[in-house]
Design a protein that fits this description.
five-stranded mixed beta sheet, Immunoglobulin-like, 343 residues, 30% helix, 5 helices, single chain, alpha+beta, five-stranded antiparallel beta sheet, 3 domains, rod-shaped
Amino acid sequence: MNRFAFVIVAFSLLFGAIFAADSVSYANSNGLDVSRILEVNKTGRLNIVLNTAEYVYTSTVTLTIKNTGAFEKPGVVVAEALNLPKDANVAYTPEPVSVQGANGWNIGTIAPGESKKIVAVVDSELGKDWLTSLPAPAISVEQVKAVLLATGSVSEGENVRITLTTEQAQPIGGAKVTAVSPSGKKIEMMTDDSGNADYKATEAGSYLYIVDGYSVASTPETQVTALIKSSPITASVHETTPASEGVLSQFTMVIAGFMVVSLILLAVIAYYSMRGEEEPEGPKRVEEEDEEEAPEPRGEYEEPAKKNNFRDEAARIERAREMTRKILEARKKELAAKGKKKK
């Protein structure tokens, strides 16, 4: 009965297998996705001589390189070191060549979205700890020639735009571009699908650029101008004059003006009046000498013309005073009316 059970178990192991898998991904700056997958197959077989079941382990390590960019990756070369156990045998697909003392593969060109695989089959049991201890594979890519454009000059605190394209003016997305500030601070950016990326220039001076994975013939510079700090503005306080005070001041100026005009007018009138009263000495003596010979006046006595002139001048002065007084009163009423409207 025991022998029969053993035969059943051995038979099932002969055709059965135990499968386990682990994976590790690696970061790559060449626009490639790199990952390793470890698959371990445990297969049972019957040892007829010893009447025992034996297990055979087969470990398959698959290295996958995928181009996730929008442009083909030419001249891809991979160097791999698996650090296998000493007694392990390994078979590679495709067959490697020697690259810097390690197993290497000239993958060639990988088109956008295409994947290339390197498979190693080992006749030994490999575990997860072995997989995670492996270093990342060394991958080199022939750099694509690119053109980098950047804003030439901005003021401190403004945004700067950079644009990365191929020589055929096709935008390059997913590329890493680093801006280096005047103080050495690095600002890392990833270009979008249009090949653009933006950052804020916070320092005055010249910004330089570094592009990973692409060959740029000449890198531009961005000049940042420092902002001029203005001194604080002191607000001046202006006193507002009430409307009534403004009207009074205007009225006072008008009165003063009319008084000056009136005084000038009175002075002119008085001057001409005094000239009318003066008589030259010569004519008086002639009149006295001829007084006896002059005929006696007939009829009513007539007042000399100079006295009439004096009375006329006095009347004109009085009329000028009256006119000035009326003008002043009218102006005063007008200004008072304006003051009430403003209130």
